[in-house]
Amino acid sequence: MNRMILLRVIGISTAIVLALHAGMEFYGDLIRPNFRASDLFSGEIPPDKAKLAGGVLASLSLEGDLLANYAAAMAADVLHRPSAEAGERASENKAAQAALVAALKVSPIRPALWLTLGTLQVQSGETATPAVKMSYLTGSVPIDVAFARVRTVTSSTAATDEEIKLLAQSDIRSALANRSRYEPLLIAAYVQATPQGKSLLLDTTKVADPKFNEILRRY
Questions:
Q1: Residue 168 — φ and ψ, nearest 5°?
Q2: Exposed (0-12), middle (13-18) or buried (19+): which is 17, by Cβ within 10 Å?
Q3: What phi and psi, each to the nearest 5 degrees, are found at residue 35?
Q4: Mean of the pLDDT values across residues 111-126?
């Protein structure tokens, strides 16, 4: 008799857990921010409610898309809607980084999300080389993300890493292939680049587009 009761308790408990899981998944689909890390680099900014709606559920979820979209929404706030106070900006940056790391632990094959983490690390003065390198090693990215990666690499210590320098040449060539759109942005990236970043841009454009290389050397 005791064994039957135990089995019933286990069965009921399992059913409750499965029902709760299904309910969380359903609710997650309803409130998941319709915003991805790649959108962050195309200039799209999520609504304020995107972060708030998914916050509680994201902290309890192991669902990759929910965690990734919520983390991207948090990062967008840090990058596009920063707080006025330096202390609050630093705190928000750390919180967004923690959300990104949590998402990447569950679902690591997300190159734009790795780049988002690296971008926040650069902003806070941290070493971004490992995160940027992972953004290259985990898959291809749209051209907007590739150019954003050029900007992150050339403005940080990532430009001193030999492997990243080789990988970044492909991003620079992609931007040069769309030169009419990216020429002013590449010039701006060059102006803001570290000495190593400037060398990377000059060395790559010298071979890929000598005329544009001459333009860069004027700045």
A1: -70, -25
A2: exposed
A3: -150, 130
A4: 95
